[in-house]
Amino acid sequence: MSRPDTTHEFFLLTSLSIREKIEMNNNRFHFPSIKIGIVGGGQLGKMMVHKARKMGFYVTVLDPTPDCPAAQAGAEQIVGSFYDEDRLRELVEHSDVTTYDIEHTDTKVLQGLAEEGNKIYPSPVLLETIQDKLRQKDMLNKGSIPTARHEKVDRFDTSCLGKFGFPVVQKAQKGGYDGRGVVVIKNGDNLESIIRSESFIEEFIDFEKELAIMVARGIDGEIRCYPVTEMFFDERANICDMVVAPARIEKEIEEEARRVAIRCVEVLDGVGIFGIEMFLTRDKRVLVNEIAPRPHNSGHYTIEACLTCQFEQHIRAITGLPLGSTRLLCPAVMVNLLGEEGHHGHPAIEGLAKALSVEGLSFYFYGKKTTLPFKKMGHITILDENLGRAIEKAKEVKDFLRVKAEVNA
Amino acid sequence: MSRPDTTHEFFLLTSLSIREKIEMNNNRFHFPSIKIGIVGGGQLGKMMVHKARKMGFYVTVLDPTPDCPAAQAGAEQIVGSFYDEDRLRELVEHSDVTTYDIEHTDTKVLQGLAEEGNKIYPSPVLLETIQDKLRQKDMLNKGSIPTARHEKVDRFDTSCLGKFGFPVVQKAQKGGYDGRGVVVIKNGDNLESIIRSESFIEEFIDFEKELAIMVARGIDGEIRCYPVTEMFFDERANICDMVVAPARIEKEIEEEARRVAIRCVEVLDGVGIFGIEMFLTRDKRVLVNEIAPRPHNSGHYTIEACLTCQFEQHIRAITGLPLGSTRLLCPAVMVNLLGEEGHHGHPAIEGLAKALSVEGLSFYFYGKKTTLPFKKMGHITILDENLGRAIEKAKEVKDFLRVKAEVNA
Question: Looking at chain B from residue 355 to 384, which residues have their Cβ under 8 Å from any Cβ of chain A?
Fold first, then answer.
């Protein structure tokens, strides 16, 4: 009988999926049979850790902040930077399979570790493509996936920036997230606020809705697609603040959105779960905006509302286990709890008791030690048979449930 | 502005519910605002810890086994016995509110700590009543709650044991759980297997079904009742192995069962969640069998199937927060993964990949280091619109998903 350790060696030395190995191993799992590594221990890591722990798996996260959210959920933590080669090696070599809760990490180092035979999903090569939003778009277009027209910025003048006319969207190729690294240039007269780093312009899409879909793909290519959702953004910070599931769109558009989303993950040869953000244009075209190679804010509602949530689905996918059903049990609305403007410091939340008295509300607080304006501090999900009523409840709660800082009070 | 510490002092020194305090404190929560202590860190503790962590609360558990299941979910652990006065004091004084995942602890010590002003829910006095199954039954009867006829055993002879005729059930007053401390005496000829400790006999109920209900009660008396479920037992060990929700019973019986269950928790003046086990007799009477003063095996299905699960409900109740909706989203069947007979040692699970391919199945493995025959090692929950199909799936999985020990292979 093989001991856990030899199981792990066996695991590391072959290219078979864990599922195949289990079957070869008489379909046996030894506990903790699977050691998962996660680059990043924020809220996405925390929710992944819970689902992994639920199944008896062992998790290590790499994160620079001691006692990060994922560590609070029972992961072992390596304290270090996402770009620290030694720490990345420590994480990967300590784990049977490694994944991410953030795409800002050293893909070169991870690619080297993958070439040594370590399992890393999604692949560092895919991550590198995603990291550069321009390369990402070009790859999608090569796969004949529709996106907004775009062009690399080689000169910071109107002749280049104005190519698609104004207003136009300028995006940094790298390093952007949660609205950072994106500006809208209203006209050519004032170029003060433009991005000076490597960037591209994108035609300004006067969209009808912003849609998002989670798609999971297994090591063996098995695909599961979640319902299409509508994303709403806080315009002050251009950050997602509400997600409505399912999206209120025509059946044909839903099917088109699913088809395109699945195609995206196939084009990228992705393994794991992916968040596909899209525009629905006023002339009813579906254009892919960008892709998150990990669990995504637009999929938090799946924890309560779907048979298998995005976090467990990701764990299943990267460990080669069968994917779960993505069926929606009940309509849901998710609202992000963003740090209040003008508030910095130890968080204090207002209105919690009142919020918890709302029928069908589930509350998440990530355990971050400091709140900052628009920082994602937690979220709520409201389930209601009646989607319209769920949206009303969500908007109500949004008005009184606030994350402030003690010292600002 | 009060700091977290003063919030805690404030909390400890008044008799107001946390909810009232939050409101007095401008409805403000400071994170981690609530420190929860749990006596016992098994699977119930683990699932409570997850829900507490989800809301940003801090948890400490007292358990003799290092790296107990609850510690794996992100609780701080005090390693020690449930009967160690110093460790119990350490736990309670380190926490704003203390609760249990097991009823076998020193209620005298806890009562002393409660009298010093520490919050402990349910109250140690209630726990003491529950610990003695005879006192528990007598208290229920005083509250005019129907139970099987019973009588204290004062002589180990047929004149006493045979009072209700044979077969008869003999139960130890204290220390029994998961089928331990209960024997069925078939006739008066063979009394070898009878219980020799403090015990009572109970008339043998030839029941139609065994039912269970979870009932939550807040500090302010608010009550929420979950659906009635059917419990099935593995006869080899008389331990619960399957729970079906909702119970397949007539509406009137369901209403009667709910009414009786709620009455039980009121009679006990309970705070927290309670599992009420009942018999449905062939002549359609509902008799209370026994009460668990904590989350209960019959309520595991609520994690996936109800708007608010039993574990979050318990956390809400003991912290004085509003209780959540208990609405059933989808029929569900829960199956316990019990350690295989004849297997002792480091656990290995067979059939996991196959099980995860079953539509609507959720898998839990508690992270216990050793498997023993009939030990609760994990569970699965299957959701299906069609309850009959859910039961079929559950029985199928029960046949191939097995927890063995490596060395026995």
Answer: 356-357, 359-367, 378, 383
- Does residue B4 sit at the A interface (CB-CB below 8 Å)? yes
Residue of B31, B67, B325, B385 to mutate, interface with A, max A Cβ within 10 Å: B31
Nearest CA in chain B to A56: B365
User: What pLDDT score does A75 carry?
Assistant: 97
Q: Higher-confidence residue: B34 or B19?
A: B34
β-strand partners of A185: A168
Per-residue pLDDT at B251 exceeds 80:
yes
On chain B, the residues whose CB falls within 8 A of the CB of A364 are: 54-56
Asked if A355 and A233 sit in the same domain, the reply is: yes
What's the pLDDT score for residue B277?
98
Q: Residues of A with CB below 8 A from B2's CB? A: 406
Same domain, B251 and B314: yes
Does A365 sit within 8 Å of B55, measured CB to CB? yes
Same domain, B49 and B198: no
Query: Six-digit token pair at A404?
Result: 């402030």
In this prediction, residues B155-159 reach a mean pLDDT of 88
The residue among B315, B283, B379 whose CA lies nearest residue B121 is B315
Q: Do B353 and A19 touch (CB under 8 A)?
A: yes
- Residues in Cβ contact with B116 at an 8 Å cutoff, skipping those fewer than 6 apart: none
- The count of structural domains within chain A is 3
**How many whole angstroms separate alpha carbon A194 and alpha carbon A38?**
34
Task: Select from A259, A289, A296 the least CA-distant residue to A274.
Answer: A296
What tokens does B350 get? Answer: 């067979």
Give the separation between CA B384 and CA B358, rounded to whole angstroms. Answer: 11
Do B87 and B169 lie in one domain? The reply is no
Q: Which residues of A touch B354 (CB under 8 A)?
A: 27
Q: List the structure tokens of B123.
A: 């109250």
Answer whether B72 sits within 8 Å of A73, measured CB to CB.
no
Domain harbouring A223, CATH code = 3.30.470.20
Query: Is residue A19 assigned to a domain?
Result: no
A173 and A212, same domain (yes or no) = no
d(Cα B285, Cα B254) in Å, to the nearest integer? 11
Distance CA B210, CA A131 (A): 57
Q: Is residue B407 within 8 angstroms of chain A, CB to CB? A: yes
Beta bridge partners of A78: A62
The per-residue DSSP string of A333-382 comes to EEEEEEBPTT--BSEEEESHHHHHTSTTEEEEE---S-B-TT-EEEEEEE
- Both B196 and B56 in one domain: the answer is no
Contacting residues of B for A330, CB less than 8 Å apart: 329
* Number of C-beta neighbours around residue B388 at 10 A: 12
* Tens digit of each residue's pLDDT (9 = 90 or more) over B44-95: 999 999 999 999 999 999 999 999 999 999 999 999 999 999 999 999 999 9
ipTM: 0.92
Task: Check B353 against A53: CB less than 8 A apart.
Answer: no
Pairing of strands B239-245, B229-234: antiparallel
Q: Is pLDDT above 50 for B240?
A: yes
Q: Contacts of residue B348 in chain A, CB cutoff 8 Å? A: 1, 28-31
Chain A CB contacts of B316 below 8 Å:
356
Alpha-carbon span B106 to B93, nearest angstrom = 16
| Residue A14 counted as domain residue | no
DSSP β-bridge partners for residue B183:
B170
Q: A119: which strand partners? A: A97
B322, closest residue in chain A (CA to CA): A357
> Can you give the CATH number for the domain in which B190 is found?
3.30.1490.20
Provide the number of CB pairs (under 8 Å) joining chain A to chain B. 163
Helix axes A85-94, A107-115, angle to 10 degrees: 40
Q: What is the mean pLDDT of residues B29-35?
A: 71
Residue B55 sits at φ, ψ, to 5 deg, of -90, 5
CATH of the domain at B70: 3.40.50.20
In terms of domains, do B321 and B240 share one? yes
**Domain check: are A110 and A192 in the same one?**
no
